[in-house]
Structures are given as C-alpha cells and as structure tokens.
C-alpha cells in the first residue's frame, strides 16, 4: 500500500471518489498540496482577525479583501501549482496578519489540512463551506479585475472562513452556514454579472465558429474576460488568432466596446474539441511557463505551474509578449471538427423572449425545461450527459451554463417554434442567469414555489465553482437536484442524508431511469 503523502478530495475526479493521497489526479504534487493546505489555513487565520476587526466596528482595507479572494482562488482545482508563488502568498498572508492582530494564537502543523478535523460530519461541512467559498472567491476575483467589489460578500467570505476554525459550532450551525454561503453565492454571481455587463454589455444571441483558422493561435482558458480583452488588444495586427472556451458566448455579445467586439467576430474561435496536437514549451523556460496564457499548436500549454493571479498590468503585458512571440513560431492548429454553435442566452436575452416562451409552455409546445449546467470532465462517465440530451423528448428545452454544455451543444436538437432546444447562458457563473430566468417564470406563472415550475435539474460538477452554484440553488429553495457523475467524496454519509432528506439531492442513475424521474 502506498504511503499517504497528501489528502485532497475537493474535485469530482478525486482518486476512487475517496481522496488523492499520493499525488493529485489533476497533477498536483504532494508538496504543492501541502502548501495549498497551509495557504488556506493561514487565510482562515487572517480572516479570524479581520472578522474581529469588523465586529469592533473597524474597517478592513480592500487590499486585504483581495488578498483573501486571491489566496482561495490559487487553491481551486487546476488554478496554480507554482510552489514559489504559493509560498509568497503564505508569507504575505502571515505578514498581513501580524500587522493586524493585537494578539497571536498558536499554530501547529496538525491544525493544517482536511484531516485536521477528526469528526467526519464536522469535517464534511467545513469542507463543503470552504469549497463553496473558493468558488465564490473565484467569481469575486474576476469581478475585482473589472473594478467591482462587494464589501458584504468579502466580509462574509472572511467570517465563514473563520467559522470553519471554530470548534464550538455544531453540525446544525454549520448546515445553516452552508446555506448562508449559498445566499452570498447568489450575491457573488450577481456582482460578476454586473461587472461583466457593465464593462462589455449584455450578451447577445450569437453564432460562434468552432473550427480552426490559418494563423498561429493562443489558447486562453478561464473566466477572466479582462485577460481576454487585454490579450486581444496586445495581439492586434500580429497575425495570431485567439482560441478560448466558454468566454466566447458572453464576449461575442459585446455592446459597449465596438472595436473589441469586431475583433471577437474576426479573431476569436471556440476551441472546445476543435483543435489538437500540443506544442509544449521548453520545460526549463520558466519565464514562458509562467506566462498567463496557453500556447497552442492545436491545444494547450499547461500553465498550472505559473501565474500569479493579481500581478500588475505591466508585468502581465510583458508575460503576454513572451507568449505572443512563442505563438508566432508555431504552425497553425490542426482542426478535428468544424461548424458553429449558438450562445448568448443570458437573462436579458431570454427575458426578451419571455412572451414567446410563456406562450409555448401554455400551449404545450414546451412541456419541460431541464437545467443541465455545470462542469465538463474527461471521464467516460460524463458521456451520460450527451446520451441524456439525445434522449430528451422534442418538447423539452435544455437550459445550460458552464462547460457541461460541451457534451451536447453540438448536437442537432432543433428548436420549438423558433426557440432553440439548447439555451446557453454562458459560463458557470452565468448559472445566475438561469436562476433569474427561473424566478421570472415563477413570477409570470403566478407560482408560490420555484419547484412548481415545469423545471428539472440534472447538473454535472467538477470543482469548487460548481459547489457555490449548488449552494446558491439550495439557498433559492430549489429541490430534487440530480448531481453527477458522482456525489462529492467530501460529503459524509450523515451530511449526504441531510441533503437528501431536506433538499432531495440525488446522484445520477441510468439515462432511462433518470428520464422517467426528471421528465416523466
């Protein structure tokens, strides 16, 4: 038996659906895992201090709020494996705490990490809350990049982090805190929605190319639309195309920045599944590896070893310049498919179609909506979602957001009276749009409970942003959510039982069985 060198179970692909103990399935080493655990712990200790300061009526500087969100963002699945960057973040956090704390508390190594909590139910709820906070921090960080902040969200993140170190809190206290995390998850997604739409306008229904072009390319992945904007600005006229994933449906609908919108139409390609053949950099070229983008001769440069999330703009520009120079040396990507997909069905676009949608429901043309938002992943078990989409009756419409869509958004599912059977709101944070759409439909139909809508939830999860989306849905009162491909390993049997009995949470089964349960 292999000696346990680490313990991490925060993602859906964790080894054996129990936990990674030697190295991460994601590629994270035991050393990096230990550093991430320490960073989370020191961030919780800092949050104890900031929470006490707020309780005494003292202000907390915005830079401290940003430090907390960036620290959590560093530790989400696949975000940052750079040991030096994590060590620097730990040192900065300790220094900040030392400046703020009126008295210090002892810290020992046995207090760090998931397994430091011995009671499995308390541990499970602490991790559920922590992972939800990581997802919320990721969304807050992207909003911060667009100069949007919410002091209430930041204060809650820190209060909740501090609470996960409080041994006086009971299981019931932590269940309540998990639901409160969902409440602020809604607020955090609203903040990012405001940041994106204030900067770039509301998304528009847009047809997006998924093929490749004749120029060399750069692949940029993630949710930071400001990074994408800056990359487009810096590569203008360089003969380089930009490939990205779920950002495109949102940014393709720009209303406010006409020049950038034109570049998106002309130079940005939807990359999911459309390119292949990795050209990786020299593994000893740390300057290039640390660049905050991904080079492709078809697919991706793995940049998880590098990248400090909030580096100054001039440094980001220098790093992008290195990537651009490398991209110019690459041949064009090799395509493996071609075609177009349609996105941009965020809340404002769907609200504009509300009359048409309501009439289709009242007439029986649309019998049901199924929310199939969430994450994609590499395991074959996720083929379930493609098969489920194919099997849906032709009077059922899919509402989606996030990369889960890539299992079915290229299927020819047709439309219902001109309403596409896949309404794609955008990124996973655009699950906020799906929640607004559901609440609007509830209002239009005069219902007193969102669960009375002709609406089912069959959600795929992978990492911590999906956790905050799930908690947000639970806070909004949504019940009977099916979650897969597996239920989270970090849910103890008792915590899972609470979720099943109070919210109807369930895993997925066979396509046929789930079709009967969710659609009828």
Q: Beta-strand percentage? A: 5-15%
Number of strands: 15
Helical segment tally?
18
Class of the largest domain, according to the CATH hierarchy?
A: Mainly Alpha
What is the averaged pLDDT score?
84
Description:
The chain is α/β, with parallel strands linked by helices and 520 residues long. The chain folds into 3 domains: 185 residues, Substrate Binding Domain Of Dnak, Chain:A, Domain 2; 130 residues, Rossmann fold; 175 residues, Rossmann fold (3-Layer(aba) Sandwich), CATH 3.40.50. Helices cover 47% and strands 10% of the residues. It has a 5-stranded parallel β-sheet, with helices on one face. A hairpin with a 2-residue loop joins strand 11 and strand 12. The protein is globular. About 13% of the residues have low confidence.
Task: Indicate the topology.
Blueprint: H1 30-55, H2 62-74, H3 83-100, H4 120-145, H5 151-163, H6 171-200, E1 206-209, E2 217-219, H7 225-235, E3 241-244, H8 247-251, H9 258-267, E4 268-270, E5 275-276, H10 286-289, E6 294-296, H11 313-328, E7 334-335, E8 340-343, H12 347-352, H13 354-363, E9 368-371, H14 383-391, E10 396-400, E11 415-416, E12 419-420, E13 422-424, H15 431-444, E14 455-460, H16 464-475, E15 481-484, H17 493-503, H18 511-518
Parallel strand pairs: 2-3, 3-4, 9-10, 9-14, 10-13, 14-15
Antiparallel strand pairs: 1-8, 2-6, 5-7, 11-12
Question: Can I get a quick summary?
Answer:
The chain has 520 residues and is an alpha/beta fold. Helix content is 47%, strand content 10%.
């Amino acid at each position: 038996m292999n000696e346990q060198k680490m313990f991490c179970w925060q993602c859906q692909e964790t080894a054996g659906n129990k936990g990674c103990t030697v190295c991460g399935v994601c590629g994270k080493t035991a050393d990096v895992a230990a550093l991430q655990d320490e960073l989370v712990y020191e961030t919780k200790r800092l949050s104890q201090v900031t929470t006490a300061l707020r309780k005494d009526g003292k202000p907390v500087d915005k830079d401290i709020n940003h430090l907390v969100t960036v620290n959590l963002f560093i530790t989400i699945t696949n975000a940052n494996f750079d040991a030096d960057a994590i060590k620097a973040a730990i040192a900065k956090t300790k220094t900040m705490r030392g400046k703020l704390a009126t008295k210090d508390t002892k810290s020992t190594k046995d207090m760090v990490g998931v397994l430091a909590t011995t009671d499995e139910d308390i541990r499970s709820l602490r991790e559920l809350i922590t992972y939800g906070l990581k997802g919320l921090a990721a969304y807050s960080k992207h909003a911060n990049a667009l100069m949007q902040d919410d002091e209430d969200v930041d204060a809650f993140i820190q209060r909740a982090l501090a609470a996960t170190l409080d041994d006086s809190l009971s299981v019931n206290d932590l269940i309540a805190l998990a639901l409160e995390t969902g409440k602020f998850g809604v607020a955090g997604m609203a903040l990012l929605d405001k940041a994106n739409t204030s900067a770039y306008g509301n998304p528009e229904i847009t047809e997006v190319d998924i093929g490749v072009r004749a120029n060399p390319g750069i692949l940029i992945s993630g949710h930071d639309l400001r990074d994408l904007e800056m990359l487009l600005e810096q590569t203008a006229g360089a003969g380089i195309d930009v490939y990205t994933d779920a950002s495109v449906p949102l940014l393709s609908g720009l209303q406010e920045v006409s020049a950038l919108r034109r570049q998106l139409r002309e130079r940005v390609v939807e990359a999911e599944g459309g390119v292949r053949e990795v050209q990786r950099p020299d593994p000893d070229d740390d300057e290039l590896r640390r660049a905050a983008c991904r080079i492709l001769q078809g697919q991706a440069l793995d940049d998880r070893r590098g990248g400090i999330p909030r580096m100054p703009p001039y440094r980001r520009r220098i790093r992008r310049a290195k990537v651009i120079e490398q991209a110019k040396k690459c041949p064009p990507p090799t395509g493996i498919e071609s075609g177009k997909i349609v996105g941009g069905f965020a809340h404002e676009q769907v609200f504009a179609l509300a009359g048409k949608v309501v009439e289709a429901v009242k007439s029986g043309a649309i019998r049901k909506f199924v929310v199939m938002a969430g994450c994609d992943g590499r395991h074959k078990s996720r083929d379930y979602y493609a098969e489920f989409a194919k099997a849906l009756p032709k009077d059922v419409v899919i509402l989606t957001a996030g990369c889960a869509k890539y299992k079915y958004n290229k299927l020819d599912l047709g439309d219902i009276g001109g309403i596409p059977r896949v309404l794609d709101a955008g990124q996973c944070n655009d699950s906020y749009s799906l929640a607004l759409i559901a609440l609007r439909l509830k209002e239009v139909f005069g219902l007193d409970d969102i669960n009375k809508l002709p609406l089912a939830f069959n959600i795929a999860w992978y990492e911590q942003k999906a956790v905050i989306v799930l908690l947000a849905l639970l806070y909004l009162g949504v019940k009977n959510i099916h979650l897969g491909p597996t239920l989270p390993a970090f849910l103890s049997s008792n915590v899972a039982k609470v979720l099943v009995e109070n919210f109807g949470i369930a895993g997925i089964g066979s396509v046929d069985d789930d079709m009967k349960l969710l659609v009828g």
